[in-house]
From TrEMBL:
All copies of domain Large ribosomal subunit protein bL25 L25, residue ranges: 7-94
Entry protein name: Large ribosomal subunit protein bL25
Membrane-crossing segments per the record: none
Lineage of the organism: Bacteria, Pseudomonadati, Pseudomonadota, Alphaproteobacteria, Hyphomicrobiales
Residue span, Large ribosomal subunit protein bL25 beta domain: 103-187
Ranges annotated as biased composition (Basic and acidic residues): 220-230
Name of the gene encoding the protein in the UniProt record: rplY
Superkingdom of origin: Bacteria
Length: 230
């Protein structure tokens, strides 16, 4: 599991859009800590630190020890908003971590040993990933960094279901066991799609060229007709 990370914050007395804009002008990100049968606590966290944590990956599976207003509280990010144009963090929601509590989090799925999968290495197949993350129920202190799937021996046509995933101690998968996580597909499946797309583009280009040629011919004919009338 990921280690608990410290996070410095400033307690906020004011909330609302105006207060949030003022926080952002100061180079901070407005945030809220909620849950644990306690009132929500409004805080502000450093913009650069927040952006680094989000884009480093694993943000939503990391438990933070947040220091704000002379108090320390453990919490895990539940959601965050980014500016749709700049990608700058605009707001973060944290959920308090309570002892003995289980929470649902999305954990990334990593695939290893593709070189040891005959369907990929020898037969030229492709790993078609359906779920890049899976939702698990787990105690905050036991959140895994990732679920790792070994592709050794996988052939074309093999399917990896949720029931095939290795479950670390204390981790329960929320998705049903029959849910498909990934499949090894033959090269012709993706190749045919690419060929069809290329053929459609080529046909569209030919049609456009033919239309342009017809338009040019019509213009030339009109010019010739006008010259004859003169």
């Amino acid at each position: 599991m990921s280690a608990v990370k410290p996070l410095e914050a400033v307690a906020r007395d004011r909330v609302g859009k105006g207060a949030a804009r003022a926080v952002r002008r100061q180079g901070q990100v407005p945030a809220v800590i909620y849950g644990g049968n306690q009132p929500p606590q409004a805080i502000a966290i450093d913009l650069i630190r927040t952006r680094t944590l989000i884009y480093a990956g694993g943000f939503r599976t990391t438990v933070f020890e947040i220091s704000a207003g002379g108090r320390k509280v453990r919490a895990i990010p539940r959601d965050f908003q980014l500016d749709p144009v700049t990608g700058v963090p605009m707001h973060v929601d944290f959920l308090r971590v309570v002892a003995g509590q289980s929470i649902e989090v999305e954990v990334p799925v990593h695939f290893t040993n593709e070189d040891a999968a005959p369907g990929i290495k020898q037969e030229g197949g492709t790993l078609n990933v359906v779920h890049h993350t899976v939702t698990v129920e787990v105690a905050p202190e036991s959140i895994p960094d990732a679920i790792t799937v070994d592709l050794t021996g996988k052939a074309i046509g093999d399917t990896i279901h949720v029931s095939d995933l290795p479950a670390p101690a204390g981790v329960t998968f929320v998705l049903g066991g029959d849910e498909v996580v990934a499949t090894v597909v033959p090269p012709t499946v993706l190749g045919a799609e690419v060929e069809a797309e290329e053929a459609a583009v080529a046909e569209a280009a030919r049609a456009e060229s033919a239309a342009e040629a017809a338009e040019e011919a019509a213009e030339e004919a009109a010019k010739d007709e006008a010259a004859k009338e003169d």
